[in-house]
Amino acid sequence: MKHRQARAAAAALTLSLAAVGAEIDTGTGLVMQPGWQDVRAHCGTCHSFGLVTHQRADRATWLAMIRWMQETQNLWELPPEVEHRILGYLAEHYPPGQSGRRAPIAPELMPR
Ligand code: HEC
Fold it and tell me: Of 32, 34, 56, 90, which is the most buried if we count CB atoms within 10 A?
């Protein structure tokens, strides 16, 4: 009985993920689309992946956040092709729009 419920729950989960068109990695909460492994490798050391997945921004704003972390928070330099993949991934899957989180703070207003 328990088994059948679990299977039904799993099926429902699979269906709801299929409905949004992408699988979510259970470990990080990241949408599993090209580039996600770069984000997994570089963006979860200092804070939770939730901080990333709850943010929404366009490419330029994602880049500004990365530069701010590099200039003030010891985020390491990312190889250009890795940075390119990460920015493409974030801008595509976490674009501006509906978000539970406040808008990113303008880089010039961030602490130094
Ligand atoms: C070396 C440490 C470090 C790494 C690695 C790191 N961050 Fe951060 N990040 C921080 C710190 C510190 C903050 C501010 C923490 C806070 O507000 O709790 C922050 C804040 C953020 C925020 C919130 C910005 C805002 O406006 O509030 C986002 C989004 C974010 N990081 C995304 C990323 C992404 C994407 C990556 C991978 C490219 C990454 N972080 C990797 C240190 C890091």
Answer: 90
